[in-house]
Amino acid sequence: MSMETLGPLSGIRVLDHGHVWAGPLLGMSFKDMGAEVIKIQSPSGNSGVSMGGRGMPGTTAGGDVEELDPMGFHAFDRGKKSLTLNLQSPEGVEIYKRLVAKTDVIVENFSARVMPALGLAYEVLSEINPQIILASLSASGATEGPWRDLVTYGPSLAALYGIKSVLGYHDSEHPQEDQADLDPTAAGHAFFATLAALEARDRTGKGQHLDIAQGEASIQRIGEPIMDYLLTGRIAGPQGNRYPGMAPHGFYRCSGDDSWISISIRDEDEWTRLIEFCGDMVPAIRDERFSTLSDRLTFQDELDSILEGWTLNYQSWDLTRQLQKIRIPAYPVMGAIELAADENFNALNQSNLVMRNTTYSKDAIYRGVVWKLDDGWGEISGSLPKAGADNNDILIDLLGYDGNTVKDFEMRGVI
Amino acid sequence: METVGPLAGLRVLEIGDFISVGYAGKLLADLGADVIKIEDPIDGDSVRGHGPFPDDIVHLEKSGLHLFLNTNKKSLTLDYMSVKGRQILDKLIAHTDLIISNNTHQEIQDYSLDYASLSRNNPQLSVSSITVFGYDTPYRDWLGTALTATAASGAPTKIGHPEKAPLWLPYCAADFHGGVHGAIAALLALRMGKISGQGHHAWISTVEVIASYLNGSGVPHFVFNGGLASRDGTHRSGFYPWQVVPAADGYMEVITMVDDQWNRFTKLMGNPDWAKDERLRDRWTSFEWHEELDAYWHPWLKERTREELFEIFSEHRIPFQPVNRIDEVVASEHLETRDFWQTIEHPVMGTYTTLGAPYKFSETPWHIYRPAPLLGQHNQEILTNLVGLSEYEQQRLRDSGVIV
User: Fold this and answer.
1) Cα A399 from Cα A195, distance rounded (Å)
2) Nearest CB partner across the interface for A251, out of B156, B203, B229
3) Cβ contact (<8 Å) for B359 and A210?
């Protein structure tokens, strides 16, 4: 194997207990960067991806409703190996421990009680393998505290940690539903933390436990209003599309059906360029009420409505191109169809692949890899594993069990 | 001070401006990396002028965003776009493992900030570039902010009321997401460097990062199903309920994904007749009648405070949670139990409190070693020890405005 085919995580073995979103996404991140990822699933048929209930229209190329594809989450398992293992049975735990001895990273997003309850607390795992890194993504952390054992989902956790309180229109108290970015935010922080723990292990030879509270990783992105409260006592509410220190800053309606352009002006140079460009068409924008940033912030309602009176005359792409030409940050608010046709977006996603979906016998397209290394690493590979597809390889080749023992495990439901 | 974090011993230069690169730098610095933040000699990083400020009085050392984002870093003021400044930067790079940057394409071109130029004298150097539209893509020279990046990702088409404007992810969430993934790209480039024996360049696009977050399945979902066709307002379409609902003193996030959870809720309400409504039987289609169905149980929530509701729902293991305000989050017992908040001594601010760890490391802890730096606070230390300039040479640089 040449150097070029090795990814940054080549040689790293990961056990993935992820379910629903944050966990499987973290496992997928390792796989995309060259690690071997073994998905641990229950032999009883729990796929480890299902959220329960009916599948929503998923990722199938025909646009069919994929009954076994709740939310399309199975896409996160591309390229992983699958081991079915009954961790409730002593033999299952024994197999697991033999596997831990040959593993670098364990990823799990159970509630904080589950791994200790299985007899697989970090202390136990590190005794088997002192180099093991256990990345635990619980909702609110593994240590004591009143929110520790809550039943919660990304959107409700975002509410609890204040993230939802600033999402909504600036002239209404009622928050709006969000785009549910808490899970991927937590998974991103967890991937970073685990990579850092691998750096430490390279130096010290020792693994460690990462207690990642998804709420604490996600709350960082509202650091600004939190600092505002800590420094001034102001309590931020829903912000609309506004942002302190920039005006105009918003989405403005364009011609066509539900079509919008984003425009944000960061400094006086950009503001000057904007009014030079549109001032003859909308003289009102030259009003002295808008001459300084603090004036524009004060009279933002008036400014926004004047600006929108102008943008309405344009198609969003035409105006975007004209504004970018004079160095103004602008872009259409992309819809589904536009995004699929977006030249730049398609260039970014060049590593998207159409792949045979082995589990459900339909082709699917998977998102590309967001981290680009100049030598081109980051092509996605591998399809979805069938539950237990790699049982034999892992038990016989990796762990050294003989074929008959494995058959026996299978018959008794250990695997 | 010696650091104990997992990235101890790693020297990083942070080049660029505002939130995305600053957050990437914070993630590295808070895990023990020696992060030197290179700032404009006059105004510094623009987060310093951004605020929020105590008493709303602008002060370059008192911006809340700066105090939060720049913990543990050193500050070097340097006009690296000048010839003299660039010579110093190149000398500094010789002692550097990693550069993180969010320079625009124009700046990269005009000032030779591409990987080949940066690593000219240090083949071991790795670089992570945080871009909005991509490093080698058709729109790489377009300007973008967190707002335009969010627009370009498609995320807003699902957020907000159908009759009103779509909404962004407030407070420059896109920049924070770009920062996390820029920091990941940095560590991946370093690992690649260990394997191949020479430095690597990695990059991310914040537009793609946000797009990759959407709906779990991301791009394919809307390519094939038009999954982002309309905005949902306060009610997410799909299964029922998934909404923001008024309580007596604020709002509750109400979401159930498992039938048992919904059944526990209706049982808690005394198994009323409305719970037998046929339209609730299949909660994947119930959304269609949500206005009528909401009327059954919204009034019950409206009569109770969020605290009362949170207690009842927690006890019955129903995943309905309060929309906490910022002040309530800061006062939360849970975050106090987790020792989340960090109180830091600062030479100008006195004592200030900021957010704590996004994760806890059992062996090599996340730690705040020092407050956000004063503008140019570490000039002398860095120029003397790393660049090897005499006091006379440093004075000449100060006189010519290359440093302060």
Assistant:
1) 26
2) B156
3) yes
Residues 6+ apart with CB under 8 A from A131: A104, A201, A205, A206, A207
Q: Name the H helices within A314-385.
A: 316-325, 336-341, 343-348
pLDDT at A1: 35
Q: Residue A136 pairs with which residues in a beta bridge? A: A108, A211
Strands (E) in A149-195, as ranges, are: none
A252 neighbourhood in chain B, CB within 8 Å: 165
A281 vs A307: CA distance, rounded Å: 11
Q: Is B391 exposed, middle or buried (0-12, 13-18, 19+ CB in 10 A)?
A: exposed
| Dist CA B203 CA B46 (whole Å) | 23
C-beta atoms of B364 and A148 within 8 A: no
Cβ contact B167–A169 (<8 Å): yes
| A252 touches A320 (CB < 8 A) | no
Indicate yes or no: CB of A345 within 8 angstroms of CB of B155. no
The pLDDT, as a whole number, for residue A338 is 79
Question: What pLDDT, on the 0 to 100 scale, is given for residue A56?
Answer: 36
Residues of B in contact with A33 (CB under 8 A): 188
CB contact, 8 Å: B129 with chain A?
no
- Give pLDDT, residue A67: 40
B-chain residues near A190 (CB < 8 A): 359
Average pLDDT, chain B: 93
Is residue B298 predicted with pLDDT exceeding 90?
A: yes
Could you tell me the two tokens for A292?
């300084």
pLDDT of residue A5: 65
Q: Do A143 and B337 touch (CB under 8 A)?
A: yes
Chain B nearest-CA distance from A404, in A, is: 39
Location of structure tokens 């795992």: A125
With left for phi above 0 and alpha for psi between -120 and 50, is residue A141 left, alpha or beta?
A: left
Best of A372, A373, A380, A384 to disrupt the B interface by mutation (most B CBs within 10 Å)?
A372
| β-strand partners of B74 | B36
Q: Per-residue b/e over B170-184, b at no fewer than 16 CB within 10 Å?
A: bbbbbbbbbbbbbbb
Q: How far is CA B238 from the centre of its chain?
A: 29
Tell me: pLDDT of B354 over 60: yes
Neighbours of A301 (CB within 10 A): 10
Distance from CA of B381 to the nearest CA of A (A): 27
B169: nearest CB among A159, A179, A204 = A179
Residue B30 has pLDDT above 60, yes or no: yes
Flag residues of chain A having pLDDT under 50: 1-4, 46-71, 353-362
The chain B residue lying nearest A72, using CA atoms, is B217
Q: Per-residue pLDDT tens for B251-284?
A: 999 998 888 999 999 999 999 999 999 999 888 7
The nearest alpha carbon in chain B to A143 belongs to B338
Interchain contact, A371 vs B181, CB within 8 Å: yes
Identify all chain A residues contacting B65, using CB atoms and an 8 Å cutoff. Answer: 223-224, 227
Q: 3-state class of B48 per DSSP?
A: helix
Residues 2-61 of B with CB under 8 A from A: 5-10, 23, 27, 31, 50-56
Asked if B167's CB is within 8 angstroms of A371's CB, the reply is no
A57-66, A332-341, B1-10, B78-87: which is most confident:
B78-87
The sheet carrying A330-332 orders its strands as: A249-253, A260-264, A330-332
| A116: CB partners within 8 A, 6+ apart | none
Q: What is the mean pLDDT of residues B160-183?
A: 96
| Residue B118 C-alpha, separation from nearest chain A C-alpha, in angstroms | 15
Bridge partners (DSSP) of residue A10 are none
Q: What is the pLDDT of residue B154?
A: 86
